[in-house]
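User
New here, explain this?
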Amino acid sequence: MNKTNTRPFLLLLLLACTSNWSFAQQNKTSVKLQAPSGTTINKHIYGHFAEHLGRCIYGGFYVGEDNERIPHTAGVRNDVVAALKELHIPNLRWPGGCFADTYHWKDGIGPKPDRPTIVNSWWGGVTEDNSFGTHDFLNMCELLETEPYLSGNVGSGEVQELADWVQYANHGGESPMADLRRENGREEPWKVKFWGVGNEAWGCGGNMTASYYSDVYRKYATFMSDWTNTGGLFRIASGANVDDYEWTETLMKNIKHNLVEGLALHHYANVEWNSKGPATGYSDTQYFKTMQSAWKMDELVRKHSAIMDKYDPKKRIALVVDEWGGWYEVEEGTNPGFLYQQNTMRDAMIAGVTLNVFNNHSDRVRMANLAQTINVLQAVILTKDEQMILTPTYHVMEMYKVHQDAQLIPLSVESALYTFEGETLPAVHASASVGKDGKTHISIVNIDATKAQRVDMNVGKKAKNISGRILKSASLNDHNTFEKPDLIQPVAYKDFTQKEEQLSLELPPFSVVVLTLD
């Protein structure tokens, strides 16, 4: 904890649910902002995910070295690199996903004309030429100034294959794999820290039981490193699907804690898994159900963390939510296996709520990956030939980047209720942090589809300077298109007043605000 950045003030948030900007009822929301707790909001919470799926890699990140229409560096789109660097993305997960447990990394190295093809049996049945492989991905991460997160093949691979991949990527001395890397044009190792040991072992990664997978994991993790993990690998076990708490219990009990640094969790927000509904043109009911599913992340994090606390009270092992986001039906006329969907203000709400959950539980959640980066699921970027657009989700991630590696300011929120057909959700969701520059950042989301919120804050003392940005739009279904790429983007937020220690602000329906107090 950096005591020079401690700002001992108390913020009390009083919120009333409004309709047409008039008070309908008085609900007291208490948000206590105290001195930073010493918990860092790990920047890796803001990670991303790039699977060989649809047009995420081919046609998204990678357009080929011979492309003369789209500016690129070694085949990677320059506009994509610039946009993602603006997000300060801390890590990027690859090559899957389900694809990871069918991917054999040695097929993606060496001269590209000599590489064997692979049928992507999980996603659309397309045949890929392996032109984007280990060198391409790791070099792209250097372009992005981000850390790679490699997901190893446990389902159809062997222990030696993953051990060789670690040596190929990380060994700087003489060894068969290091020599092979040099033969393929890379002298210095990339020093990859983050390694996933399989993916969704309970499903597409092998349909294993938790007990069986925990033994498999121990074997793989053992041969990835030495006695004491002197290479500093961050090994991530394939964790639970949503609320499978028994899976978490079994892994925490059976895996030696010196063999694991992270335990994964996957959860997607949707209407119903077998009836996901459209990405645009959704109904009020579908919106509310999606937000119920998104808010379930808070319960999942708390309950999985409680199990982990039983076996790891010092919280050495991180909860890694390496797949999260909204999942809907694909856009009409697109390959069902490509998972291409538009991105509306609903997705901005999912992002804001979920990131606030991660921030507030950053003592255990220390890494996460939005699914996925480009053209797949809740993407931050969509591309079409030479065009590229930034989605509402992109803008939320960009607004929230102020929390990366900042000190968490604990808070509690007792929110006004978002009520729909007799069911309720908290309308307001928030998190706060203080950065190394001493500035306090508060991110607030109003998920109510129709009602604005009035927020009254007591910040303990008058702030010298207050600035803010807001993401909002006229319609919940609004989204950026290739014809109107800038319909939704952050604008300055000035709808607040300050009187001494009192700060009052008004939040439009389905909006995201980030305030900076100096």
Summary: The chain is about 25% helix and 25% strand. The first helix runs from residue 78 to 87. The first strand starts at residue 12 and ends at 19. The two ends are 19 Å apart (CA to CA).
